[in-house]
Amino acid sequence: MTNPIFWVGVLTLAAIYASLAMALNVESGWGGMWDLGIAGLLAAGSYCYVILTADPDLGMRFAPGLSMWVAWPLSALFTGLVAFAIGAPALRLRREYFLITTLAFAEIIRQLVVIQADFTRGTLGIPNINRPFDSFVTGRDYNYVLLVIAALAAAVMYLVTRQIGSSPFGRTLRAARDNEAVALALGKRVNRMRIQTFVLAGILIGATAPVYLFYIRAISPQLFAPGITFTVWTALVIGGLGSIRGGLAGAFVLIVFTEAVGLIEVDPAHINILVAIEPMLVGLLLVLVLRFRPDGLFSERDSFGSRRTQAERASGRAATASSRPTAAAQASD
Amino acid sequence: MKRILVALLAVGLLAAACSGDSDEAAEEGPVKYGFLNGQSGDYGPWGHWALAAAEVAVEELNAGGGILGRSVELVVEDNGSTPEGAVSGFAELTEVHGIHALGGIESDGMIAIFDTVHELQIPTICSTCGTTELDDTGGDMVFRIIPSDTDNGIVGAQVARDEGYSNVAMLVELSEGTESPANVFKSVFTEQMGGNITEDVRFNAGEATYSAQVAQAFESGADAVYLAAGFETGVPILNEWQRRGYTDVPMIFTTDLLSPEIAEIVSGVEGASAIVGATAYDTEANPAWDAYVPRFEAKIGDPPEIAFYDAWQYDQYIILGLATAKAGTTDGAAVAAAIPEIANPPGVEVFSYADGLAQLAAGNDIDYHGTTSNLNLNSVGNLLSPVMAVIQVEGGDWGVREYIELDPSLVKPS
Q1: Do B56 and B190 fall into the same domain?
Q2: How many domains would you assign to chain B?
């Protein structure tokens, strides 16, 4: 049997991606803002954390050597600020224009990291990331600590996003996504809500960034290539865009499946075939899920339909047999 | 819905559970050497050659009777040329396959797993990482058998000085593997040699055109241009260099450009000025190299190439094999301690695993010489004083013009 430590690592990575996917769901699933800049926001949070906690001996121009417990929330706030700086101009755009703009901003952030080598060590990167409790638990056992941290982060993310999704704010957000004209007619300040959501997602991604670094243990610009964004998106689509549980489930299915495929043993001479097949199998998983569950493993209807029904029952109104509950109707409640 | 989710997870976990070999690195069964390398991603184009060289080495180990009476198994894992892939790949190699030692890793991945390698006591030889981050670390569990980017930068400046260039323009791709030697080159050339950098042009990989950058560098009045780029950006830059008629300006290349495709482009340009590169490639009158070349060629159908790092991939597993034999155990700490002992003098010079094993069996110390250098290591596990080959295009391919040693008066920039 496989050493459980390996699967502890896999589940840790899955929990990290689950956090990112749930944060993405807030802005993209509910807010309708299709963001391809996840890697950029993750880079902003990660570098903020590393710079604030870096060893002054590394020769970086700014290395205050803060405690990780101080740097962690500051990283989240900083990423929120970066999200605001991106969102203010980008949210004037819609659909594919917004999508391309966020992708471009992510690349700009990565290039800034490369160019500002005095602060970030550029392409050289920074090793030896500070990790919590590593003076108490070392070696293989630390993997369990990291799993607990990542699982806690994912659990908090789930509770926070669930609260957002079922709040009046979340309902209005989905209403604006489904029918902006109606939301505006109801007096909702849609643009302001969108930028608030974008900043909120940035804060959530920034809060996840240190956990990702605890897993990787080093940072370099290469870490934040667009591939990470597409992995988060794939997880969310598999799990169910707009669903409260979608990001969580999708990330676990995707990461566990990917790592399980990687365990297929072949003769070294044929490793290139396996390497080519791996993404195909992941693609096949995506196709199968979308074929049989077009809304993902969990649909938005699963997440919010039952709540609406409960609310209606509680208020004594007759239950409706509507197909998909429109967010606009809920927002007007 | 829940049933589908549970089924998917169960299938994944079941497949994984059934595919594993064993848990901890057992003292029974084959000796397992990990090969963690970018078989896909940025390093994918080199992966095929690197793996073939590693296989040649493992075949030699097994042909020599294995290690400690056990067969040797090469466990291959693709890291996708990313740090994240290196972390998960290393976890799979250690926790699923129970490897005893590791090779093949590149700079970014090595930095990511550096601490874990030490914690798990997995002897690791870095055969493709030039990162300056390893200049002052390592030597206890991590060793490097290629020149550091610091060495590469210094030798580039040395070549520029010896060629009589006092004004040099720089064209540098923004990546760790190219910026590191370029920054050392610039520092040594200007601060220790009094040279002048006429332009320092940095660019990203994957740009639609490099026309402006090429013009900026070649029209700066430089005696030569220092080009630090990867293969994929080097090709369009050289096409631009050719198209715009800058071929009378000599160039100095970094290691990644010393590929046959680049040689073909350059040799097809009539009247092109000297284009040189330098790397640790001491293959002259070298029995290890002479024995390696035909076996590699038989394996893959092509001779070894300088910039494909394959020879170093081969050397690392012969070192690990001899070190394990010397240690008499697969225990990580013991094998790591034996690596400098078999790579450094004093000892009988040996050029193959079989010869080394015979000398060890006879109770002699050995000093293994590899295909590319004597592999003598300093206290931090780096090559002690690599002999560098100055390489130039000759007859459509790269050929060694001369062998030089690093000028001891040139020091690593602080």
Answers
A1: no
A2: 2
**Is there a contact between B55 and A122 if contact means CB atoms under 8 Å apart?**
no
Residue A260 forms part of a structural domain: no
Residue at A56 is within a domain:
yes
In this structure, what DSSP letter does residue A318 have? P
Structural domain contains residue B23: yes
Please check whether residue A179 touches B, CB under 8 A.
Answer: no
In a domain, B286, yes or no: no
Give residues 302 to 341 of B whose Cβ lies within 8 Å of A.
none
Q: Are residues B250 and B331 in the same domain?
A: no
Domain check: are B31 and B88 in the same one?
yes
Residue-wise pLDDT tens digits, A38-91: 999 999 999 999 999 998 888 899 999 999 999 999 999 999 999 999 999 999
Structure confidence by residue, pLDDT tens digits, B300-350: 998 887 767 899 999 999 999 999 999 999 999 999 999 999 999 999 999
Asked if A227 reaches chain B (Cβ–Cβ under 8 Å), the answer is yes
ipTM of the complex in this document: 0.86
Q: Does A298 touch chain B (CB under 8 A)?
A: yes
pLDDT value at position B21? 47
Domain region containing B266: 150-281+387-405
The structural domain count of chain A equals: 1
